[in-house]
């Protein structure tokens, strides 16, 4: 355990040194991650008007997308883009020479970025609360269940997206695959709209995929939209997807190593 903490401390310190040199780029990333939910909020808040849509009032939509912005910030990754460039330019070969799994460095970089940019994301969330009619029904039980759900969803998203990004070893442009993945996950994961606002068939389809368990489910838990028994079942499903993603990661990683042909570096 101590060795792991020292490893992540070293990785995070190195990532901090690099990222703080590019404040403009970080601001652009923050705007991209944070403003997208705000745009969806504007659309659905207007569509709801003074009534309800898919079980959501205008205030519910404001609360939903505020939480989506925060939860998405916790779980967001850019692994497809990084892996695409890393494999094509030969950086992946250099990483394989290190005595630790490359995933650890990516996680540390991701966590460092989120810690730095939280300074901008949190004030944006506060500003949204002050300017919109946000309707929260936060209870102690809801927050107690939502906290581990947010963490599980973040780990699930990181492991799944890092695994899928390894497709860069089989194709020349995995970033294009990442765009398709992003499109599907936005519709089935509760980004483009709350799942209850989707057509029934699409809602049912989404529940059989891992996408809603990354962001939508933790957000709905925090809003108290799941009874206790249903929330516990959801947490078990979320844990099942996490285990499946970790097994997939291990399997694909072994095959990726056999597939890899060293170039550049």
Structural commentary:
The chain is mostly helical and 265 residues long. The protein has one domain (2-259). Helices cover 74% and strands 2% of the residues. It has eleven helices and two strands. A two-stranded antiparallel sheet has the order 1-2. β1 and β2 (56-57) form a beta hairpin. α3 packs across α7, α3 (58-75) packs across α10 and α4 (79-89) runs antiparallel to α8.
SSE run: HHEEHHHHHHHHH
Overall shape: globular
What would you call the structural class? mainly alpha
How many strands, what sense, and barrel or not for the largest sheet?
2 strands, antiparallel
How confident is the prediction overall: mean pLDDT? 82
Number of domains: 1
* Percentage of β-strand residues: under 5%
Helical content class = over 70%
Alpha-carbon distance between the two ends: 31 Å
| Helix segment tally | 11
User: Order of strands side by side in the largest beta sheet?
Assistant: 1-2
- The beta-strand count equals 2
């Amino acid at each position: 355990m101590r060795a792991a903490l020292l490893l992540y401390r070293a990785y995070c310190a190195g990532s901090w040194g690099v990222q703080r040199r590019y404040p403009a780029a970080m601001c652009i990333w923050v705007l991209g991650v944070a403003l997208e939910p705000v745009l969806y909020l504007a659309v659905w808040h207007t569509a709801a008007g003074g009534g309800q849509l898919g079980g959501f009032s205008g205030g519910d939509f404001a609360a939903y997308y505020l939480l989506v912005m925060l939860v998405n910030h916790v779980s967001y990754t850019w692994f497809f883009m990084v892996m695409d460039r890393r494999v094509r330019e030969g950086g992946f070969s250099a990483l394989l020479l290190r005595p630790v799994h490359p995933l650890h460095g990516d996680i540390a970089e991701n966590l460092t970025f989120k810690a730095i940019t939280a300074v901008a994301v949190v004030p944006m969330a506060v500003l949204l609360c002050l300017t919109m009619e946000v309707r929260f029904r936060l209870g102690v039980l809801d927050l107690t269940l939502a906290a581990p759900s947010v963490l599980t969803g973040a780990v699930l998203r990181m492991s799944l997206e890092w695994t899928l990004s390894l497709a860069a070893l089989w194709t020349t442009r995995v970033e294009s695959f990442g765009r398709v993945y992003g499109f599907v996950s936005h519709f089935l994961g509760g980004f483009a709209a709350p799942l209850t606002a989707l057509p029934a068939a699409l809602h049912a389809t989404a529940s059989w995929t891992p996408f809603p368990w990354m962001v939508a489910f933790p957000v709905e838990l925090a809003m108290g939209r799941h009874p206790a028994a249903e929330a516990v079942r959801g947490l078990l499903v979320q844990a099942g997807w996490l285990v499946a993603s970790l097994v997939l990661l291990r399997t694909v990683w072994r095959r990726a190593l056999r597939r890899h042909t060293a170039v550049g570096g």
